[in-house]
């Protein structure tokens, strides 16, 4: 029987417990065999933002999931470079996995109609959505809500931007990122200067 695999893309700058706890619930609720984290090179909707060096984002992700047997990662988008379109990644991963569910946060569902090739994405993968509080003005419902599976995951309202801001202001991020990730950030002095 073919594996049922969740694909979870992100900038992961840095990976945090919001990503990890909610995807753990997705794995259980969707009965997935594993979740593959896909750190992007450049997110299509964040081309104007200066994300950290992809190698650091990849290293932190690796440290966060290395002991978790059902979490995996691929550096496909980072190796490829340029803007990371999820459609291209799914086409690539479909060469290995026949049964793919694409995991996104609710904030991405409300703009999913603005993604590259959204119709083709939902032909290749089920869209699975994790709860996230969004601004009322951020978006309205689009046609992708109809077939998306919106899961009752816990809302853990922390974001990578909040963490970067905390570190810049010398506030602790203990409990918000795994200890090994916290240590990595401290060691290489990440997010200290803007
Ligand atoms: N706390 C959270 N709960 C549920 N989903 C989340 C959470 N944080 C991020 N996500 C989802 O995880 C995916 C990757 O998110 P990303 O790496 O951009 O993190 P982020 O915290 O939103 O980053 P930033 O604050 O820099 O925008 C997106 O689909 C996003 O919607
Ligand atoms: O393919 C697209 O058009 C697209 C548009 C927006 C976001 N994504 C992907 O969604 C993931 C989360 O993006 P973001 O901007 O919320 O960090 C990341 O893997 C992006 O590459 C993909």
TrEMBL record:
InterPro entries: Cyt_trans-like, NadD/NMNAT, Rossmann-like_a/b/a_fold. Residues 7-166 form the Cytidyltransferase-like domain. Pathway: Cofactor biosynthesis; NAD(+) biosynthesis; deamido-NAD(+) from nicotinate D-ribonucleotide: step 1/1. Its EC number is 2.7.7.18. It catalyses: nicotinate beta-D-ribonucleotide + ATP + H(+) = deamido-NAD(+) + diphosphate. Gene3D superfamilies: HUPs. It comes from the Bacteria. GO terms for biological process: NAD+ biosynthetic process. GO terms for molecular function: ATP binding; nicotinate-nucleotide adenylyltransferase activity. The keyword NAD applies. Keywords: ATP-binding, NAD, Nucleotide-binding, Nucleotidyltransferase, Pyridine nucleotide biosynthesis, Transferase. Belongs to the NadD family. Catalyzes the reversible adenylation of nicotinate mononucleotide (NaMN) to nicotinic acid adenine dinucleotide (NaAD). NCBIfam families: cyt_tran_rel, nicotinate (nicotinamide) nucleotide adenylyltransferase, PRK00071.1-3. This is Probable nicotinate-nucleotide adenylyltransferase. It comes from Melioribacter roseus (strain DSM 23840 / JCM 17771 / VKM B-2668 / P3M-2).
